[in-house]
Structure formats: structure tokens, C-alpha cells
Design goal:
Low-confidence stretches: none
Order of helices and strands: EEEHEEEEEHHEHEHEHEHEHHHEHEHE
Largest sheet: 7 strands, mixed
Helix content: 25-40%
Distance between the termini: 14 Å
Number of helices: 12
Mean pLDDT: 96
Strand content: 25-35%
Radius of gyration: 19 Å
CATH topology of the largest domain: Quinone Oxidoreductase, Chain A, domain 1
CATH architecture of the largest domain: Alpha-Beta Complex
Protein name: NADP-dependent oxidoreductase
Keywords: Plasmid
Number of domains: 2
Structural class: alpha/beta
CATH class of the largest domain: Alpha Beta
Organism: Rhizobium tropici
CATH superfamily of the largest domain: Medium-chain alcohol dehydrogenases, catalytic domain
GO molecular function: oxidoreductase activity
Length: 333
């Protein structure tokens, strides 16, 4: 089968198109014929080697974290899906590889594709949808009537998180450029701050939740917009000690995480707010709930561009440029 692989880590290392054997199917997995895959910033970060401490992939490996397609084979113990099912998924870490014609995915991370959207739109959902769900529902426990600040509202996570927060009944503030104001308002944003003109910390007060997707400096500044007892969930940095425990990291690695997050945790304590680092996980049951919201019209996919499979490197470069509004997708067929 055709696939795009990482030969060696590095920012200037393009993915290489190769012919590789079909993936080995484990007993609890389904084999998916890939119709579309989304390109995410994490793909660039993994290629660059920024996650080697957390995700020690051995090169060469196939990249790609989102998939929509059709089940073509099921493992001996897989019971949830049958051949011919249209599905979407975010594979487990260390079993990624959706930039390929076929991918083997643990059935617990798979869900039936929402019936009212295309394969390309479905491929755009899993990683950002699960990130927003796990941040706002699982970690922050966002409630009706609360206020949430979602950074970078026109990005992949932002466009989904705004819609999810509005569905949950929250008031939503976000940052974006003036050119994207209409987009984020159409998704439900109540307060829109042009980050090129205004500082969000001067505009926002007494928020319950912050979803941080920016750098550590922005993370620390964001804590100041929270009310006492508020909660900031960061999907970018820095990992904390609890995350190290969750992934069963070695004691030395946990101490690295403790050191990296020390100043952030100290500021959170001083302000009387809580801090959580989120590294999302594939979850089929959550994708089923997300599919229900999409089919009900509560959430719609936001896709900026669709690239042909052979242009995967160009799609990755476009994502890295930071210009994408919503998601970038590669189409297999």
C-alpha cells in the first residue's frame, strides 16, 4: 500500500511517499480503508521530534492521527463493527498511521461516521473533537451559565470547542484576527477579541474556564482572567506530574515534567485556580456522542482546504503556516 512515512526526525525532513506492507491486524482491531485523513499540528511536532519523550516512535513510521473510511477486515476478537461500516477514529498513540491507504485501529477508538457529513468532513473531527470534549467536559466540567475563554477560535480545536461550549450553555470568548470574526461568531462566540489590536487580559474578567492552546507566556496571562476556583486546561504546555503518572512515565521523566510545570503550577496556586495539562486520547464512545451532536446539527465541521493524498507534504506545510481556518484534510479517493 502507499503511505507517507517519517524517515528521520527533523523540521526540514519531508515525509516520504513509499510502498509498504499492509498493517498487521491485531485481534481487537479493525482494518480501515482510508478515504480521508486530517492534518494536525501534532503531525508536524511528532515529525520534528518534539514528542519523543512522550511518544518514542522508532523511525521509519507512518504519520497521521485522524481517519475516516470503511472497515474492510475485523480482528478475531473485534465485535463492534462489521465489514462495510463507514467509520471515523483517532487511533491510539503508538498505533497511528493514517497517512496511508489502510490503517489498523483498536475498535474501542472507532465510531460510526456521522451520517450527514462527507468522509472529508468526518476525517476533520476526531482529534479536535476529542480534544475539546476531554478539555471542556471531562477536565473542566463546563456547565450551563459559565464563561469560557477559548484561545485561537478560528483554528481546528477552536472552531469545534466554541460550538461544543455553546451547546453546553456557556458564554464563549475567543481570540482571532479581524478577518475571522464573522466565522467565529457564526459558530457561537459571544465575545471576539482581535489579538492584533487588543490584549485579552484587558477585556476579560471572572471567567470559569480557559482552554489554552498557545505558549506558556499566554497560558500564565490567561490565568489572570479566571475567577478564584477557575480552571485552565492547556493542550500545548507544559506537561505536569499527574500527566506523567497517567502515562506511567519513569521517575526521571516525571521529575522533568514536574520541573517544566513548576512556575505554571506556582502561579495557579497563587491565584487560587487549578491547572491541568491535557494530552488527548482516542475514545470511540466519546466519538459516538460527538456524532450524535453533528447529526442533530449542534456542531458542524469546519474544513479549510482538501489536498490530494500525493500533496500530503504541502498540506502539512499549510498547517504549519498557521493560516488554516478550521481543519486541513487529505483525500485518498
Amino acid at each position: 500500500m502507499k503511505a507517507f512515512i517519517v524517515d528521520r526526525y527533523g523540521k526540514r525532513e519531508p515525509l516520504r511517499a513509499v510502498d509498504v506492507p499492509e498493517p498487521e491486524l491485531m485481534a481487537d482491531e479493525v482494518l480501515i480503508e482510508v478515504y480521508a485523513s486530517a492534518v494536525n499540528l501534532i503531525d508536524a511536532k511528532v515529525r520534528n521530534g518534539e514528542f519523543k519523550l512522550i511518544l518514542p516512535y522508532r523511525t521509519p513510521f507512518i504519520l497521521g492521527h485522524d481517519v475516516a473510511g470503511v472497515v474492510v477486515r475485523v480482528g478475531a476478537r473485534a465485535r463492534q463493527f462489521k465489514v462495510g461500516d463507514e467509520v471515523y477514529a483517532r487511533p491510539r498513540d503508538l498505533r497511528i498511521g493514517t497517512f496511508a491507504e489502510l490503517v489498523a485501529v483498536n475498535e474501542d477508538t472507532v465510531a460510526l461516521k456521522p451520517k450527514n457529513i462527507t468522509m472529508e468532513e468526518a476525517a476533520s473531527i476526531p482529534l479536535v473533537g476529542l480534544t475539546a470534549w476531554q478539555a471542556l467536559v471531562e477536565k473542566a466540567k463546563l456547565q450551563k451559565g459559565q464563561k469560557v475563554f477559548i484561545q485561537a477560535g478560528s483554528g481546528g480545536v477552536g472552531t469545534f470547542a466554541i460550538q461544543l461550549a455553546k451547546h453546553l450553555g456557556a458564554t464563549v470568548a475567543t481570540t482571532t484576527s479581524a478577518g475571522n470574526e464573522a466565522l467565529v461568531k457564526s459558530l457561537g462566540a459571544d465575545v471576539v477579541i482581535d489579538y492584533r489590536k487588543d490584549a485579552f487580559e484587558d477585556q476579560l474578567r471572572d471567567y470559569d474556564v480557559v482552554l489554552n492552546s498557545q505558549d506558556e507566556k499566554t497560558l500564565k496571562t490567561s490565568m489572570g482572567v479566571l475567577k478564584p476556583g477557575g480552571h485552565v486546561v492547556s493542550i500545548t504546555a507544559p506537561p505536569d506530574l499527574q500527566f506523567g503518572k497517567n502515562i506511567k512515565a519513569s521517575w526521571p521523566v516525571r521529575q522533568i515534567f514536574r520541573a517544566l510545570s513548576f512556575s505554571v503550577r506556582r502561579k495557579a496556586r497563587r491565584l487560587g485556580v487549578s491547572y491541568t495539562f491535557l494530552f488527548m486520547k482516542g475514545n470511540g464512545s466519546q466519538l459516538r456522542r460527538i456524532a450524535s451532536l453533528i447529526e442533530a446539527g449542534a456542531i458542524r465541521p469546519v474544513v479549510d482546504k482538501v489536498f490530494p493524498f500525493e500533496s500530503t507534504n504541502e498540506a502539512l506545510a499549510y498547517v504549519e503556516s498557521g493560516r488554516a481556518k478550521g481543519k486541513v484534510v487529505i483525500k485518498m479517493r
